[in-house]
Every structure is written in structure tokens, then in C-alpha cells.
Amino acid sequence: MSKAFTFTIKRIRFDENYRPSDNTRITTNFANLARGERREENLRNTLKMIDNRFNALAHWDNSKADRYSVELDIISVDIDVEGNGETFPTIEILKTNIVDHKTNKRIEGIVGNNFSSYVRDYDFSVLLPEHNKDQAKFSLPENYGELHGKIFKSFLNSKSYKDNFSKSPVICLSVSTTKTYHRTANQHPVLGVEYQQDDYSLTDEYFAKMGLKVRYFMPPNSVAPLAFYHHGDLLSDYTYLELIGTISTMETFQKIYRPEIYNANSVAAQCYQPSLNYQDFSLTQIVYDREERSRLAIEQGKWTEEHFIKPYQNILEQWAASYTDKTEAA
């Protein structure tokens, strides 16, 4: 069996003074906000939106809607493939913590939330288009997403993860514009109304390779469902405040990045297909360049191919072939 990879974790506070590190994917939600002339205003407004949404959802014993605030840490995960101290930036996620100003306590929130990965950039922006450029019908490359999924599962099994986080991650993303979602009768006090779809999107299948299931919920006073990728039982493994931390953070990001869906002026219908061509929506006061983000994803995917996929190809292939869900990582 190939030797297990080693993961190291770095934390940086996401606040109005945040500046992306050299290793941060600049297409990442939080990094994109922290650029340009309005960077501090962008960050300040984003954090205020998160706090306001949290207090609106956590409304009990909170008559002035100011009891809580959310602290965000960016968790950067580096991987050492050869065990020689040389690392590659693998994953970035967010960790929420909740400050209760009434009790003066800090409450640990959920890790995950946003999900950023250079290897995913490579898979979606380099490998997939290259595979399909001469194909009459869209298809997936053999073993598509397997390496990325195994790296992620190896990280969750690692001592680094277990030493730093007490619960499994929840990643919260936009629903797919290629799928139709149907409202169900199931309703949760915090997550809201559950939606279901007939088949999984490419993103859903990709996250399944990472060992994550998906459920779709539209929280109270939201206008569209969010996709929650998780281990275990989403509804019983986390407290209401933990879930609210994730909802308030990620719904805020989606209002900025996908206003056509998450800042629409009408609520998702019983039968709902999201669209980025929808015109009846409101813009936030936060500056964001979506076209630049798409272009940079391709550049970052090529950078990953050059600095990670090709140099370590033999090691990665051998490791992936021997890795199983029961493999213990370092």
C-alpha cells in the first residue's frame, strides 16, 4: 500500500482586514471580495449581511435582533505527497463560530460551508473540457473525480482533521441550473422547506465521490433552495445555531454571486428550475466580477496540472489505486 499523505492546516480570520495569501485561489468567494478599491467596504458589508441574517433566523430570546455575530476562519489545507515537507495547497473551507453577546460565550460552528479546491479546478476547467472537445455527446473521463474524492476523504480521516474539528463538514452551495427541484411537505424549523430533484447534477455526483450526500432546503424567508452536502444526518447531527451559522454565511455569498437565484424578487415555485438568465432580481451593494472568476478558474486548473497532477502523477495514481474508505491517513 502507498504511504499515506500528510495534511497541515492553517487558519486566518476572515474580517474586513483580510487579504488573500499567495496560495489562495483568487476565484474563491471570500478572496474575490477582498480585492480592488472597495475591498474593505465589500468585506464589512458582507459580514454585516451575515450577522443580520443570523439574527433573523435565531429570533428567539433576541428581540432586538442583535444578540449574535458570526466569526469566520478560512481553513487552508496543504498536502505533502512525498513526505519531504514540500506541500501543495489542496482545499480551502470556512469555519464558523458564533458569538452570543447575551451570555458572552463563543459557540463552535460548522466547518465546511464554502468549498474551494485547486484539483476541482483542474477536473472541471481542464480535464472535462479537454475530454469533450472532440466528442459528439457529453461524457465523463474514466474515474472522473476519483482522485479528488479520495484526497478529501483522506483528509477527513486524518489526524489533522480530527485534532481540529469535532464534527463532520457541511458544504453549502447553489442549486444547479440544469436540474428541476420539487417542493416537498417536509419542513425543518431552521433549514426550512425541503426540495428534491429527479436526478443528480454533475456537482452532486462529484461531491458523492467525496463521500458527501446532498439535501436541498429553502430556509425561512429565502427565495430559493440551497444544496447542503454532508455526512451522517444533517437534521440531527447539528444544533439549530450551528445550522444557522452555515445558512447565514452561505446564503449571503450566494446573494452576492448568484443574485438572479438567491436575490430574486419572487420565491421559488413548487416546481423550480434555477436560472442565471432571470431578470427580476436585486443587486447587493457588493462588487463582484463573475466573468473574471470563470476565466481564472481555467488558469488555476492549468496551474494545478503543471504543479501537482503531472509532477506527482505516478505517486497519485498508485496511492489512489490502493486507497479505500478504510485506509487510515496520517
UniProtKB/TrEMBL annotation:
Annotated InterPro entries: MesX
Protein origin, superkingdom: Bacteria
The protein's name: DUF1852 domain-containing protein
Species whose genome carries this gene: Acinetobacter corruptisaponis
Taxon lineage: Bacteria, Pseudomonadati, Pseudomonadota, Gammaproteobacteria, Moraxellales
